[in-house]
Design goal:
218 residues, mainly beta, binds flavin mononucleotide, globular, three-stranded antiparallel β-sheet, Pnp Oxidase, Chain A, seven-stranded antiparallel β-sheet, 4 helices
Length: 218
């Protein structure tokens, strides 16, 4: 269920959010200054989402607006993408977490979309690709519970089903919050301590921070 908070509307206006461009207040001091970044990707792991269209064709897309709470994962997705279309239609996915060494595969997927024709605002920057696994030189392997395949090369893989979709109504936003429930996990043996624990010292996710790729330090 998506709740549209009236309290927020009362405090911040009808959109429910602060409008940064209209915010003229200043909170500057010796240590901090006001900034207005063009993007707010403050650093989250890259996830490769595999999904199927209604005819059973697989798509694979990089994304990074994801976080977990218990066995639920919340995804921020553009509604113009093939992944969103597939999740709405078939409600199953796999979340595949590349490690730091896989950034070139992720960059190989970056200019691709499974949408045909390419949406007008992506024209010139993106091209349609029907087989993104092949394009990125990645291997699709069968999942155990859901139908979309896993990405063999990713050390951490999750099978999941869509629970809720909440389309963001903020002025013209082309995005949705998709809540998924993880139903099966697979981890490469070299990153686990035991069946209940991933070894955080061994697991080196690929972090996407302000549009640059990073690993974790010691
Ligand atoms: C590292 C990385 C992170 C991205 N994160 C997101 C994201 O969180 N949400 C999103 O909708 N798109 C994200 N994108 C953009 C999509 O991958 C892109 O729109 C792609 O064309 C979607 O493919 P599809 O249309 O086949 O689903 C990201 C791209 C890259 C390379």
């Amino acid at each position: 269920m998506c709740i549209d908070s009236n309290e927020y509307k009362e405090e911040y206006g009808n959109s429910g959010y602060h409008n940064l461009s209209e915010n003229t207040s200043k909170l500057e001091n010796e240590d901090h200054m006001n900034v207005k970044p063009s993007i707010l990707y403050f650093g989250t792991p890259v996830v490769l989402i595999s999904s199927l269209d209604k005819d059973g064709n697989a798509n694979l897309s990089p994304m990074s607006s994801a976080w977990a709470l218990g066995y639920h994962v919340v995804l921020g997705l553009a509604t113009s993408g093939k992944t969103y279309e597939n999740l709405e239609a078939t409600r199953e996915l796999t979340l595949n977490f590349p490690d730091k060494d896989m950034w070139e595969s992720v960059e190989g997927l970056a200019p691709l979309t499974g949408k045909n024709p390419v949406p007008p605002f992506k024209a010139g920057r993106y091209r349609y690709e029907s087989d993104k696994f092949r394009a990125a030189n990645l291997t699709a392997v069968d999942s155990e519970v859901v139908r979309p395949p896993l990405v063999k090369e990713c050390p951490l893989q999750m099978e999941a089903v869509v629970k809720n979709i909440c389309v963001l109504s903020e002025g013209g936003a082309d995005a949705a919050i998709v809540e998924v429930s993880v139903v099966k996990l697979h981890a490469r043996k070299d990153i686990v301590l035991d069946e209940r624990h991933i070894d955080p010292a061994k697991w080196k996710p690929l972090i996407y921070s302000f549009r640059h790729y990073f690993s974790l330090g010691e």
